[in-house]
Amino acid sequence: MSDGRLLAAPIRAGGGRTTAPFGRRLLRVVGVDDLGAYRVLRIADPDGPEPEPGQFAMLAAAERWGGGEDERPYLARAFSFARWRDGEAHYLLEDVGPGTKLLCALRAGEGVWVLGPLGRGFAAPGDGRRALLVGGGVGIAPLVIWQDVLKREATLSGEQAPASTVLLGFRDGRRARGAVLFSGARVATDDGSVGHHGFVTDLLAAELEKDAHATMYACGPPRMLEAVRTICATRGLPAQLALEAGMACGFGACYGCVVPRRGGGYLRVCVDGPVIDAAEVDQVEEHAGAPA
């Protein structure tokens, strides 16, 4: 192609996988929205493929992306797509380190290097099950776009019932502002400042008592993911977990993001996931989740 990029056709076997254009792209920030403790980074990507819910991109600021006396570049950071609207990609950020600090400081018009969409996304619930979305902290990001798609599919199919049930857990009220990205979310906070005083798994247990015919979709801190995995394993419920892990490349070459596979071997979060069937892992390890 004349612009040097290769656009591959989408692949949707099991969980979705839309393949990324070849090489990283220099894109522009449209805006950064404050959302309590979080930022929503909006990047114009008019020629990029629409991502599957659960996929991610590797982001790096075009300027000032380095540190120390030798200005050693930081590795690009992996972020789930939180939303896609008319060629504009949204990412949910929290300032938790040097890379996220620089990305949170970006303003409209500044450049961002983007590689993506990458990885495998969520697969639709089967067997007549409803979708039950469980998120924690900044890990709610991939569930936002997933609810968008579920609502769109329900509308197209003429369904009258809600397309999904959303349960979210946050540390405090400032972070609980992230719930506004969803429709009809129920919230739990550790400090009791918003919604249920306790864990999101309390809400989950109560919801399953009412109707357990569901497929679970979860992303959040590792302890939350492990609790969800355990609940689903005990009840024999299908669950898809969106894992997070430190990545250097994003496409399976460095093996820096591996998690143990049940029965032996390893899964690479970047290519075998980030959405992984809960039955594939014995437990969610401490490094395989979003920041608390």
Structure commentary:
With 292 residues, the protein is an alpha/beta fold. It has two domains: 25-118, Elongation Factor Tu (Ef-tu), domain 3 (Beta Barrel), CATH 2.40.30; 130-280, Rossmann fold (3-Layer(aba) Sandwich). It is built from five helices and 18 strands. It has helices at residues 98-104, 141-157, 173-176, 200-210, 222-235, and strands at 25-35, 38-44, 56-61, 66-67, 72-73, 77-80, 83-85, 88-94, 111-118, 130-136, 164-170, 186-189, 196-197, 214-219, 239-242, 258-260, 266-268, 275-277. The strands form four sheets. A seven-stranded antiparallel sheet has the order 6-3-9-1-2-8-7. It is globular and about 55 Å long.
Secondary-structure blueprint:
Layout: E1 25-35, E2 38-44, E3 56-61, E4 66-67, E5 72-73, E6 77-80, E7 83-85, E8 88-94, H1 98-104, E9 111-118, E10 130-136, H2 141-157, E11 164-170, H3 173-176, E12 186-189, E13 196-197, H4 200-210, E14 214-219, H5 222-235, E15 239-242, E16 258-260, E17 266-268, E18 275-277
Parallel strand pairs: 10-11, 10-14, 11-12, 12-13, 14-15
Antiparallel strand pairs: 1-2, 1-9, 2-8, 3-6, 3-9, 4-5, 7-8, 15-18, 16-17
Number of strands: 18
Q: Could you say how many structural domains there are in total?
A: 2
Distance between the termini: 43 Å
- The parts where pLDDT drops under 50 for at least 5 residues are 1-14
What do the pLDDT scores average to? 89
CATH homology superfamily name of the largest domain: Nucleotide-binding domain of ferredoxin-NADP reductase (FNR) module
- The dominant shape is globular
Radius of gyration: 18 Å
CATH-defined topology of the largest domain = Rossmann fold
- CATH architecture title of the largest domain: 3-Layer(aba) Sandwich
List the helices and strands in order.
EEEEEEEEHEEHEHEEHEHEEEE
Estimated helix fraction: 10-25%
Per DSSP, what share of the residues sits in E-state strands of 2 or more residues? 25-35%
Which strand order do you get reading across the main beta sheet? 6-3-9-1-2-8-7
Largest sheet: 7 strands, antiparallel
Could you name the CATH class of the largest domain? Alpha Beta
Given the helix and strand composition, which structural class is it?
A: alpha/beta
Number of helices: 5
